[in-house]
Amino acid sequence: MSVAFRRESDEEHKEPRFEIPIPVGPNLVTPNGLAQIETRVAELEARIASDQDAAGLEETKRDLRYWRTRLATAQVAPPPPEGEVGFGSRVRLRHDGAVRDIAIVGDDEADPSAGLISFSAPLARAVMGAFAGEYVDFAGKAEAIEIVEIGAI
């Protein structure tokens, strides 16, 4: 029989599972973000201890490698200077006439639908370093965003 018609196993034909990419740059976190990472690691470790499904177990181990790396590299960012937008700030801003509240957090903590914006996102980069009452450029438009109010998370 020709080798072309022989199949050793289904395993050799599966797509490889790559590691979850680690975001570039420092792994800055808020105290809440650090707690979320610690909780995620504990949940995954518990799942591995009780998981009997081989396919699910490999994916869980892959996720655990990612979260352990994130925990090992996490740096709790110092609070931003008083009155200045920075990592860990809650900001009320006006853009295109609409008022929006955002919080600037770490990459793993970000959830734009909940107003949690990663410090590496374009919006966060545009407003960091600004003060209340200041206008900042955004998306190629001069003075597109007004900083209305700044507070700590």
- Rg from Cα: 22 Å
End-to-end C-alpha gap: 69 Å
Output the CATH topology of the largest domain.
Answer: Chitinase A, domain 3
Encode the helix/strand succession as letters. Answer: EHHEEEEHEE
Task: Tell me the total number of β-strands.
Answer: 7
Second CATH tier, the architecture of the largest domain: Roll
Give the overall silhouette.
Answer: elongated
Largest sheet: 5 strands, mixed
Low-confidence stretches: none
Q: What's the total helix number? A: 3
The CATH homologous superfamily of the largest domain is termed Transcription elongation factor, GreA/GreB, C-terminal domain
CATH class of the largest domain: Alpha Beta
The number of domains: 2
Estimated helix fraction: 25-40%
Structural class: alpha/beta
Q: What would the average pLDDT be, to the nearest integer?
A: 90
Name the beta content range. 25-35%
* Widest β-sheet, arrangement of strands: 5-4-3-7-6
Commentary on this structure:
- It is a single chain.
- By secondary structure, the protein is of the alpha/beta class.
- It folds into two domains: 25-76, no CATH class; 89-152, Chitinase A, domain 3 (Roll), CATH 3.10.50.30.
- 30% of the residues lie in helices and 26% in strands.
- It has three helices and seven strands; from the N terminus they run βααββββαββ.
- It has helices spanning 31-50, 54-73, 122-127, and strands at residues 27-29, 74-76, 89-95, 98-105, 116-118, 135-138, 141-152.
- A five-stranded mixed β-sheet has the order 5-4-3-7-6. The chain has a two-stranded parallel sheet with strand order 1-2.
- β3 and β4 form a beta hairpin.
- α1 (31-50) packs antiparallel against α2.
- The longest helix is centred in the N-terminal third of the chain and has 20 residues, at 31-50.
- It is elongated.
- The termini are far apart.
